[in-house]
Amino acid sequence: MINLFLALAGLASVSPAAEVRPSAAAQPAAEITPSEAAVRVADWIAASGDNRALPYIIVDKANASLFLFDRKGKPLGKVPVLIGVATGDDASPGVGSKNLAEIGPAEKTTPAGRFLAKYGLAAGRKRVLWVDYATSVALHPIPGSASAKERRRQRMLSPTPDDNRITFGCINVPGAFYSKTVRPLFQKKGGYVYVLPDTRPLEAVFPRLRVQALSNATP
Fold first, then answer.
1. Which residue segment(s) compose the domain that 96 sits in?
2. Using alpha carbons only, what angle is made at residue 149 by residues 142 and 178, rounded to the nearest 5 degrees?
3. Of the candidates 138, 146, 135, the residue with the CA atom closest to the CA atom of residue 190
4. How high is the pLDDT of residue 35?
5. What is the spatial distance between Cα 169 and Cα 91, in angstroms, rounded to a whole number?
6. What is the residue-level pLDDT of the chain in tens, covering all 219 positions?
7. Where is the signal peptide (predicted)?
8. Which candidate, 78, 84, 83, 79, places its Cα nearest to that of 19?
9. Number of domains within the chain
10. Global pTM?
11. How many whole angstroms separate alpha carbon 40 and alpha carbon 155?
12. Please, are residues 18 and 51 in contact by the beta-carbon 8 Å criterion?
């Protein structure tokens, strides 16, 4: 089996610097290194075929990073992401039916879990990759309507993940990466998005990891 840590670590990070004004791009983005949790989940998916021959994405909320794979498990890219303002791994009940103005700060979470993501229409008849339609969580580039005072592009470019929590729960990615890589892979049949937790144990979100660990420990 491919050494996924080496494969992920060896990928060149796709920087959003080209999408930021030159004055805002003075500090280069930090190199993205896969966490132990990301590698564990990647190994499990590759070993089990959990992606069911569809492309897939691993979102590491703690490190505000994303790793993209094709249907055969080949790593294709890694980028910084913006995620929900609030820490937490569960969506608030009924949040998907609320207007943005009605969503409180504590409800702006990016839920953790395994999601079958597919393209569909959003507000304004725009197609987005819905990660979890029921809770209105989508993966898309930084929207043009995002207020300049939020500094979303600068946050994405910053060398640490500390300021990458700014969305209502959606996952923002660099525009060029989205249009050139994510959309071609996911637009026909969709794919899986695995969002790692930042408050719950990894095995609680992905129970099959525990089964895999027990299997590996058996002599």
1. 4-217
2. 10
3. 138
4. 95
5. 9
6. 456 656 766 676 766 655 544 444 444 456 899 999 999 999 999 999 999 999 999 999 999 999 999 999 999 999 999 999 999 999 887 777 777 777 887 788 999 999 999 999 987 778 999 999 999 999 999 988 777 789 999 999 998 999 999 999 999 999 999 999 999 999 999 999 999 999 999 999 999 997 766 666 655
7. 1-17
8. 79
9. 1
10. 0.87
11. 27
12. no
Query: How far apart are alpha carbons 194 and 216 in whole angstroms?
Result: 22
- Tokens representing 172 are 């923002």
**CA 52 to each of CA 46, 71, 73, 129, 173: distance values in angstroms, whole numbers, following the listed order:** 10, 8, 11, 18, 24
CA distances for 145 relative to 18, 25, 140, 142, angstroms: 19, 21, 13, 8
Token digits of residue 94? 């009924």
196: domain CATH number is: 2.40.440.10
Q: What tokens does 113 get?
A: 């879990």
Give the pair of three-digit tokens for residue 40: 């564990």
Cβ neighbours around 53 below 10 Å, total: 10
Burial of 81 (0-12, 13-18, 19+ CB in 10 A): buried
